[in-house]
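Give me the fold.
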Amino acid sequence: MITGHTEIIAHIGYPTHSFKAPMIYNPYFDSANIDAIVVPMGCKVEDYPVFLKSVFNLANIRGALITMPHKVTTVSLLDEVSAAVKVAGACNAVKRLPDGRLVGDMFDGEGFVRGVLRKGLKLQGARVLVVGSGGVGCAIAASLAGAGIAAITLYDVNEASAKALGGRLKEHHSRIEVQTGSNDPQGYDLVVNATPMGMNAGDPLPIDMDRVSSNTFIGEVVMKTEVTPFLAAARAKGCATQVGTDMLFEQIPAYLEFFGFPTTTAENLRALATLKY
């Protein structure tokens, strides 16, 4: 029920037809009697800088979820950003402080990290390989760095992207050993597929599975299929795994905390969500 007291979370991106957030947040708000709503707002690139500032002129806005193609542009439009935003080079959540300043954070990687921690993986001192240095790979690397890993190797077919991410990690997390240029998975505690490989039938695996130890935790970001060929191969070797949708549901409690709402669990969100995979 929308009332005169309802607070708005703007879900800004373009196009909006693939947005999943309203089908997760709004059932939760209903179940928890929270007078708030997530509203999809389609905004094209050329209109976005003005629109973002304008939407925060609303008296009843609680915050904004930012998605493609605006995550990178958002960084330069804010007054303050988190360390995760600085490393990732992108932002997916914005709120207005009482003094009017707009602040941003990045939770794509936080969702991934919360998921693997809840599954028992110890990240403090861990050695990690992240394959893919696009938007989601950057976000995951940023959050892993904040979680206390000891070393990270970054690989991308676009070597410049991996090196740029590596440079930002060294700048903001100087204690971490950072390497780029190899996707050999041998010797890592955690290997992450942060590429689109697995979206389409016949895609190659992101790494050589013959080089993976059964003690390695394998993480996936592809959500099109719950168990991708990459995860199936990892499970066949006895590896612990995390599916792509876990990253989505695990990040929403972090968003709720950021916006100042009562939080919940990923399990509760999954049970309430009206979307299907």
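Residues 244-259 form the longest helix (16 residues).
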